[in-house]
Design goal:
Number of strands: 12
Distance between the termini: 32 Å
Radius of gyration: 18 Å
Strand order of the largest sheet: 2-1-3-4-5
Shape: globular
CATH architecture of the largest domain: 3-Layer(aba) Sandwich
CATH topology of the largest domain: Rossmann fold
CATH class of the largest domain: Alpha Beta
Strand content: 15-25%
Number of domains: 2
Order of helices and strands: EHEHEHEHEHEEEEHEHHEE
Largest sheet: 5 strands, parallel
Helix content: 40-55%
């Protein structure tokens, strides 16, 4: 069944009832059939994610019981669901910490509901779940094999659990095996934004995570190779 035939389910973990209601309203306006579940504590959010399957989570950092970073860590133990984090602490340190822990995007409060929708749409496009065909689309380069339709990654037949953003980056590199994929091309394709110095660090951070998950040496990587001054490539 195609993704468009399914009802989108969104988990919102936000302790401010007004903010939670606003998020629920704008998602329902954009996707009228969407099911939006709002939880006001971190523990309730973690429990909800374990009991149901969601397409997207919107997670506030400042929660009354456990903070959003701890919630994100618990979510990542069992799920690769796309996560957009919200915070009033718009520091680079917080943003980097969230991204390092597996968040897919970060939005500072107060935020425009329309910007949240735009970022949510971009994250969902990165997931890219479409109709399954009888012939799965397989991408392969070296030790890496990707089932693009099932969003599954294997290294030497070992399954590797990636976030949607990591999956999109790796798929783009493998699809262009032996070719250099520039940082700007990755930003344009994966994040749908213009390149900047901050975005350069964002790409570098996700490449580091990918190398670690793929068992690639950070000192002398062989799976994802840095081409200094240009970008990255995966040998075939």
């Amino acid at each position: 069944m195609a993704r468009s035939e399914l009802i989108m389910k969104v988990l919102v973990i936000e302790d401010d009832p007004e903010v939670g209601e606003t998020i629920s309203m704008v998602f329902s306006m954009r996707w009228p059939d969407a099911q939006v579940t709002v939880k006001e504590t971190g523990k309730e959010g973690v429990a909800a994610n374990r009991c149901d399957t969601f397409d997207l989570a919107v997670l506030d950092v400042n929660l009354p019981d456990i903070d959003g970073f701890e919630v994100l860590g618990k979510i990542r133990e069992t799920s690769a669901i796309p996560v957009i984090m919200l915070t009033v602490r718009a520091t680079e340190t917080d943003r980097v910490r969230g991204l390092e822990m597996g968040a897919d995007d970060y939005l500072a409060k107060p935020f425009s509901p329309f910007e949240l929708l735009a970022r949510a749409s971009a994250v969902l496009r990165r997931v890219g779940a479409g109709a399954r065909t009888s012939e799965p689309r397989i991408l392969q380069a070296g030790q890496i094999r990707i089932d693009a339709d099932a969003a599954e990654v294997y290294v030497d037949d070992r399954p590797v659990n990636l976030t949607p953003t990591e999956f999109k980056i790796l798929a783009m590199l493998v699809e262009n095996a032996d070719k250099v994929v520039t940082r700007d091309a990755l930003i344009d394709e994966v994040w749908d934004m213009n390149a900047s110095s901050t975005d350069a660090y964002l790409v570098k951070l996700h490449i580091q995570h990918l190398r670690k998950k793929l068992g690639d040496s950070g000192v002398d990587p062989k799976v994802i190779i840095t081409v200094r001054g240009f970008g990255y490539k995966v040998p075939s």
